[in-house]
Every structure is written in C-alpha cells, then in structure tokens.
Amino acid sequence: MTDESAVGETSTKDEPKSSPQPGASDSGRREGVHGGGQGPWITAIRKLRSDGAAMAALSLLLVITALCAAAPFYAERIAHTDPFRSSLEAEIVIDGRAVPVLEPSTVGLGLGVTPIGPTWDPRAYLLGADNQGRDVAARLLYGGRNSLLIASAATVLCLLLSAVVGLTSGFFGGVVDQILSRLMDVLWSFPIYLLAISLSIVLISKGFEIGPISITSGSLWLPIFIIGIVYVPYVARPIRGQVLSLKESEFVLAAIGLGVPSHRILLRDILPNVTTTLIVFIPLMMALNMLTESALSFLSIGVQPPDASWGTIIQDGQTLLYTRPMVALAPGIAIVLTVLGLNVLGDGLRDALDPRSKLRIGQG
Amino acid sequence: MITALIQRLAQMAFVMFGISVVVFLIFFATPGSDPAARIAGRNASQETLAAVRKDFGLDRPLPIQYLGLMKRLFISQDLTSFVNRGHKVIPAVLHAAPITLSLVLGGAVLWVLGSITIGVLAAAMRGSLIDRLLMVLGLIGISMPVYWLGEMLNLVTQSRLHDTWMFSWVPPLGYKPLGTDPLGWFLTMIIPWITLAVLYIGLYGRVLRANLVEALQEDYVRTARSKGISESRVLIRHALRTSLITFVTMFGLDFGALVGGAALLTEVVFGLQGVGKLTYDALQSLDLPVIMATVMYASFFVVGANALVDLTYVLLDPRVRRR
Amino acid sequence: MTRNRRLFGGALCAGAMFGALWATSPAFAESLGQDSATPANLTQVADMQAGHRGGTMRLVARSAAGTIDPHINYTLQFWQVYQMLYDGLLGFKKAAGEEGFIVVPNLAEALPEPQNGGKTYVFKLRKGVKFWDGRDVTLADVVASYRRIFKVSGPTSGTFYNGIVGADKCLKSPADCTLEGGVIGDEAAGTITINLVSPDPEFFYKISVPHAAILPADAPATDSGTTAIPGTGPYMIESYDPNSQLKMVRNPYFKVWSEDAQPDGYVDEIDYDFGLTDEAEVTAVQNGEADWMFDQPPTDRLGEIGSKYQKQVYINTLTAWWYAPMNTNLAPFDNVKARQAVNYAIDRKALVNLFGGPVLASPVCQVLPPGFPGHVDYCPYTKNPGTKWTAPDIEKAKMLVKESGTAGQKVTVIVEDTAVARSIGVYLQSVLNELGYDAAMKAISPNIQFTYIQNTKNQVQMSVSQWYQDYPAASNFLHVLFSCDSFTPGSDSSVNISGFCNKGVEAKMKKALKLGITDQVAADKLWAEIDKEVTDLAPIAPLFTPKHIDFVSQRLGNFIFNAQFYWVMSQAWVK
Predict the structure, then answer these.
(1) Chain A residues whose beta carbon lies within 8 Å of the beta carbon of residue B154
(2) Structural domain of residue A24, as residue ranges?
(3) Is residue C244 less than 8 Å (CB to CB) from chain B?
C-alpha cells in the first residue's frame, strides 16, 4: 500500500517507494504511483467504482444484507408466519383448497409425512415448509443474519490473528517461530468435535462467566471464537511461508541493514504483500466458516433451536433430502451467492488498492 | 541438520503429549462421560456399578488413569475400547488406516491436478469468461457441505439413476480392499474421491490463481518474457514455482489432517470404515481409549506433514535458505 | 427396557390384544399365506427346508451393539441374533403373533411344576445337545452358567436373578459366586434344581432371556468382549469385528430337539455388516444388496418404501412407548399443575406425524401400553377426557400454568441426537414456549443421553425417552419406572427418571406385586388403578406407541415377526 510518509524513511535511491516486490528492480516503480497527486484511498475508491464486476458484486451483497435485515418485515407483513414456532397442524389455502402443511402419505401403505413443497408464492411458504411446518423462506432470511454475523466476525478474527501470528512467526524466526509454529500444530490437530461435544454438554444447564461476559451455549460468541481460532493455522502458515520468502528479498535486507525497526518493516513492507493472500482468503473463509458454524449448531453450540442459520437449515434439509431437496438447496445457494459476491468484490478491492495493477492496466 | 531434525522430532513429541493431556482433561470434565454405567448396562444395581468401576480402574485418581491409558496405548499396546469391550484399539486403527489413505490419496491426486489445471487456466486467461466461470464453479464447490454433497451423489448414483447406463457401474457402498478386488476398490472409491476433491479444488484453484496473477506481474517474470520465453513457459516454469508456496502450505495442513481422519463425514456417508469414521463413532459414544488413539494418530500426521512442508520451502523458493 | 442399541435392552412384547393389532396391519396379508408362520408338523418343515435351504443372507446395521457376551449384552440388536445362537433351560416359542410369548422347554425337557409353594423348580436336562465346538452340554455347564451371571456382574444379575437362593452372597462378592443352595445339579437324576427365596410368577420369563443362556463351564469369568463363547443354536459365530461384520455360519453339531423352541435355519451363512448410514441401508435393501436393515428407515424414505416397495414392508405393533419424563424434584415440574399442563398442551397427533404418520404410531395418554396386562383405556389429557385421545386442550393447559405460577421459568428439554428425537424436542420446545415458559432444546449423543438424564446431578428438567417391555408384566412399566426403589439420586443408573416417589402409590404397587403371586387377574385390576393414579399425577408426559417397520429385500421369504425378539432370523430364506 502506498504511504507517503514511508517514502522518506525507507527509500534510498534504489529503494521502491511503494509496495515493494520481492527481488524487484525499481524500473517503472516510481512513476504512476502518485499519478494525479490525489490520495491513495481516493484513487482506490475511484478505481473500484469503475470496476463493473466489483460494483455488481457489491450491490448483490447489499441486497442480500438488506433482505436479511428485513426478515421480521417479511415474516410479519408478507408471509404472516412465525418461523420459530412449530406448526405441525397448520393448513394453507392454495387455489381455494385447504392443504395441510404436513401431509401424511396416502399412497400404498400410507407411510411417512411430507411437508409442503415450494409454492413460489411469497405470501405463504415461498420455498415450502420444513418438517416442523415452518416457512423456509422466512427462516432463510432470519438465518442469514446469524450466518453473516457469525461468519464475518469469525473471519475478521481469524484473519487478524493469522496475520499477527504469520508475520511474527515468519519474520522473527528462531525460537519465536518454533513456539508459534508448534502452537499452530497443536491447534490444527486439536479435536474440535470433542471440544464441541464436551462444551455442549457442559453448557447444557449453566453457562460460564469470564469477567462481566456470561457465556451460555446460545451465545454467538462461542462459535465466533471457536471458528475464528480453529482456522488460524490455515491462514497463518501460508502467510508465514510468504513472509519467509519476502524476508530474503533485497529491499527487506536493505531495510534491515539500514537499521529500520522491525515493526516498520513488517507494517510498511511485508504486510502489504501479504494482503493479497488475506483478501483472497476472505470469501473462502466465509464459506468455510458458515459450514463449520452449522456443524457446531448441530452440536448445540451457537445457534440454538428454534433459531436458524443457513447451516442449521441445511441440517434440517438433510432429513428431507429425498422428498423436499429445496430445504437444503436454498441456504446452499444463499451461501454460494454471498461467497461469490465477496470473491468478486475482493478481487476488485485488491486491484483497486494495489498500485502494481495500475501498471497492469497501463501496460496491458 | 541432524540437530535440527532431532529438535523437530522432540517438538513433535511435545505437541502430541500436549494434545493427549488436553483430550484427557476435556473427557473427564464432561458431565455424563463416566463410562461405568454405560459399561455396566442399563438399570444396573449400584453394586454392579461399583464393581465395574473398580475393574476398569475408574476409581483411581486422574493422573494414574492417564498414565495407565498412555502405557496401554504406547508401551504394552493392548488398549481396549470402553464400548466394544475386549476390542483392541490399535489394530482397529491400523485396520482403518489404509481405507482412509485410499480415500485421501485418491482425493488429493484429483484435487491437486484439478486445482493446478484450473488455477493455471484461470490465470492464463484472466479476465475472460472462462476465468470467471472456473472461479464460480470453484466457489460453488467450496460452499457445498461435504455431507450434503455425498448424500446427493448417493441419491443419484445409488438410488434414482442406479439402473441407468450412467451409474450402473457404481458398486454397493462399502470398502473393497485393494489387495483382493482392485477393480472393485477403484470403482467404489471414484465417487468418494470426487466428493472429497470438490471442496478443495475450488479453494486451491482460487488461491493458486490469485498468486499466479500476482507473480505474473513480478519483474523477474518480465525479465523472462523479455528474454523471449513463451507465455506458457513463463507461467509454468517461473511463476508457478513461487505461487506454490501458499498452495503447498495449505496442502500440508489439509493432507495431514485428512490422513489423520478429518474426512470423517465423507467416510460416514459412503460407509467407509476409515480412521475418520472410527473417530466419529468414538466421539458419539465418548469412548475415551479410541478417542485418544485416533487423536494421537491424527496429531502425528499433522505435525509430520507440517514438518515436511517446511522442508519443501527450500525447494520452492531458493531464496529461503534457513528457517 | 430402552431401545438403545448400544448398551441397553431389546423389546419383549406381550398381550392378548397383540395378535389383533398385528392382524390389522396392511402387511399382514403378505406375511400370512403358505410361506409364513411356523408350521406345526414336521413334514411341512422338511419340505420347506428342501425347497429353500441354503444361500447367504446379508443384514446391515449402522453399528454393532457392543460385547458379544450373551450374559452381558442388553441390546435388542444382539438379543435378536442370540435367538439362533444360544439357548437357556426354557425359551420363548419361535412363532408368530401371540404364540411368541409362550414359554416352552428348550434345553430342559419339560416345563417343571412349581414345588415347595413355587420356590423350587426341577428341570431335567436334555441329552445329546452339543455346543458348537463339539462338546456335550452337561449339568456342570448349567450350574456354571448361572454362577457366571453373577461373576461377570451382568446387568440383570441384581434385578432378574436376585431371587435365587445364594444370589445375595454372589452380588456381594461376585468373584467367588457359588449360588450354594440356589442352583443344584444332580448327576444321577440328570436334573437341575433351582431354589428361589420367594415365589416369582415371572421366573420362567427371566430364565428364557439370553442373560440366562447355557454356556460351557469354562467360559471366561469376565466379559468376553469380541471373543465368541460357544452356544447351542443352529448357527455359530465365525468372526466378530464390531467395526465391520458379525459373521455366522451353520453350527455343524446342531440337531433339532424342539421345533417350537429352536428350529433349524434355512440359510447357510449370515453376514451382519456394520457401518452404513440409515439412508444407505434403505438404498442397499432396495437394490437387493442387503436382505434386511436393523435401523428404522429415515422418515423421508417412508413414502417411497410404503408405495413402491410395499410388498417388502412388514409393520408390527410394539408394547412400547415414547414418553417425556419431567423431573418432579426440580422447578417448574415439581408442581403437579405444570406437569398436567404439559400433558394437556401436547398435540400427540403432531408427534405421530413427526414419527412417520398414523400408520406407524398411535397417541397415548397413560402409562401401560394398549394390549398390556392391566391396561384399561384411560385418557384424561384431551379435549373430551375419556378413553381415547382426540385433541390437545391448550386453554386448559394455559390455565393450569397460570394456576401453578410457574410461567416464565426456564426449561431445557434433553433429547437424543437422532432425527426423530430432535424433531420431537423442537416441537416440545415450541409447545413450552407457547405455554409461557422460556424453553431450550439440547440434543446429545444417544449413547450418552440415557445415562445423562438419569443422573440427578445433571439437573435435567425434561427429556424424551423410550421404554420397551422386558416381559409381559405390568410391573415392568409401573414398578420399574415409578417405584421409589428405582430412584437413586446422583447415580447414572436411576431409571425412575422423573424421580417420582409417592407413598400411596408405592404401597399399592407392593400390594399388587404380592397379589400377583396368587391371583394375577386381581393383581392386573390393581395395576390398572395404579396406572390411572400415576397418569393423573403426571410425572411424565406419555407421547405415543410406535410400530416397528421391517424392510426386507425382494428375495427374502418366510418373514415371521415374534413379539418377543422381533423378526425371527433363522426362519427366513433367501432362495
């Protein structure tokens, strides 16, 4: 990232002013960086705005967020349903006929009960009902709130921690690296399911207190912390690897030789280069987090019945796979769309912030 | 070199020790984990409970129980399960290991080849429709829960379309050993391989593409280009190597975890009795000996894989000489 | 007992009504006809054997059921298999319908007459029966087997067999159990004499279950785990790996000694495979890759099974229950009005739908299941109280909650982590919320849940559980589940989950037990009264009685359902 104040401190005649490249010569670096004399952030925003795909992705994400935020409105005003109340005996009217929401089979031996399928009518059971007779579309919107909240928070936490660990581990090496790496090993081979099962049983009746914060099994902080921490090795180790590589590049060696303090080198020279990796990981971690969150909810940690998240709706849909696949499909599609949007937006963001890409655009 | 190796091994042992203690503590901190009543049988009298407790050494203090467990696991190797009484744990794990290996190796081959192809293609044709399409497909792969995908594939290949020419070759679910039935082994594993690989292809393809695109802007690449080397060679010979650092790191983490049994949902859905399924069943029944054995097994592979990955950094990026 | 396969019991059903209920099932017609029901005469058997003998049967289940030791295993899954592997002095008749409850002589030559006021029974041991390793069954084996029940601390040693003389010493120090004065062998006469401390009308049932199987005298005095102990049945265990397969083949030394007690089997080999999910099991049976699945089919396959594969489906009633125990010693359910409110509010028809529809379950409001001795139809918790449940009465329920003053309290429902139990749990949570409580639902692994909800330390307010009868006696439901004796605070083994202990009811139960020794009919009338009283006090919320589905492959023939141990495996053929 460009930072004008860094220019004076770290630059020498041969030293690139902005995001340095491993093993890069300085040809072509200096021009085009401070093109029109505008601040780097304004340039970035301008660039982003002109990127059609990124704008489309941003709108998609905004629409999804807005829909989820409007969940209570949809449930109360449009669908007239309480998506958290089991309504196994309800009936709705389709084409003038009263149709039970849960219909026992009348074919053959009359075994089994099937919930109503998608009616494609936003006023009642747009996407059908789940096996408790609840409106899937309404639950999808409410679920989006939980999923987006938990996954975003967990992703932010994870990337933050990973950056710190990866940078420290890779840059300082030696004992620090060994300790942190072994810690990462422990974390990665940690039996998360065992912890989750244990925690869910421990928390059944009581929560536990950490200072002023009371954690019960329904607290959303639990999955946020668990997921955020569990995936740290997955991002920290690649970052560490990159940092190891970067550490040997000329400009870093030069900076060290100049006596520039470590934290400056980390922040000004190395971090910008690993942001690409971090940005690429955002949508990927969001997807993984949403799925891991569903596994945790299944074990009664985090989103509890009757609350929903996209993951729990998928779980509900597992038992209806052979008869009502839409219940599992709809949240899956929601996850894909969100992840897609983040992906494209992330690409655009990286392009916008990365001055190297100006070169790319300029030179084709 | 040797000292570094020994040091690394010692650290591995320490990590495994740490995890074993954590598992042990978690188990005994869990209410309802006391195996005595479950071993004794339903509605057992209090005397029976006490007798069982004594028999299994469950009335001894925790550190003694821990040492006893570790001794039976590593030294005398006669550790038996709490749930399947008399069933030795270590042979069970060793018996399950080749099944998991079959699944993971095959899946890994698929996803590595697949993601490299996708990543390289997407980077080479960046900005084009193909690039976007590949990325979308990859993202769909990441967003699909493994269990759901497995069940859907079963639904299609075993149930709905089983009698059609498309899927009549799919054998019944369940592992067929490579030694006795190679063709059956292969046919059985194809669908599980695909299921396992789908998640990772998207992930790795995406990461690789991003790193490649970045690498292609490097100056050393421009140098290569200016030397007249063709674009594809530039991509594959020069850009790919450094882009593989992240790829290899992630692969080490994933592969290590998978061999250790992280593919448990895939194994469950396809009826493969691998280490993952063993772990899953043990967790469901809070069977401490089996849980301990599988966790030790898993952590061994995770730390081992990470150690190997650290070694490969030297090969991939010549600038990294020391760790 | 519960249906939990891992560690707990199977289901033994009984009752005069059973045959009638079974006969009304749609699949009844399929299971009758010339291919079904144990034929009475031997020429018919010989013909059938000639026509259908041979082949390999493949059975599938999600997992194995623990130890293979018949004196210890207490699961339905393996009790079903033990029927063709092990024999006791007496046994349940291997017949369909009502006949399956009849106790017939097995390794004993005849049913003994009670002597000494019902405290002594003398059994004459049959000669010529061999274990599957070739050795003869001797008196020493019988005596040793009864001692072994205590030596291995079998789960029912303290509950079924504590009435044998000398059992109290054995329970105190199992290792040197001699059962002196309890089980005596007489070599000269070839008889076994069993002496009881007091008369027990249920004694014959108790010695007909696998826990009293006759094993070789040198069987290990500890849980044999995965090592099979030789038995006397038509099949023997060739190998057992709890993670993959239980393989059974014909016992080469088997000769039929009683067609009723232990007929010969048709297939040559039985492969019982473990490891498939229940969805995969259904598909395997549909594709003909498996002949029968142990687990109940998942609810989303019921439709297709009931329509496309209806000829391969057998549905049978069970004397069993799904119920929701409420902790009578913890708020809010220490208040009887709160408990009754829950009973009024539950829509049992909805629960039946969650289980799979009205063909597979029926609502109940009382403790004793229909068709049980002592059962008299009684349902107070419905819109029009009387004998049958019709609809929930939410208004009455809400009123009761108000009167109890417990509204707004937190309640947690603990269920098993299976699809059906979860859905029932979510529904109950919804009902509780509607009543004004702040309800939560937690699902834990089925292997742990049963012991978890029993232990008062865990302070479980409400849970969902099932109970299947051990043998046809009202005491098996009322006394076992609601007696003060069955309540042990702080223990994982306290099957009176609701902690119900009522002096009046307790006295009545003791009276009924005593009465049963002499006059079972009068006793059953008393049990009916007790049933009413307990139902009114509502320590539990009865939910429904389930039916059992057996889904078999197309080629499987002669399917016989024995109410005692369910499908009689040895009597089916595959050719």
Answers:
(1) none
(2) 1-50
(3) yes
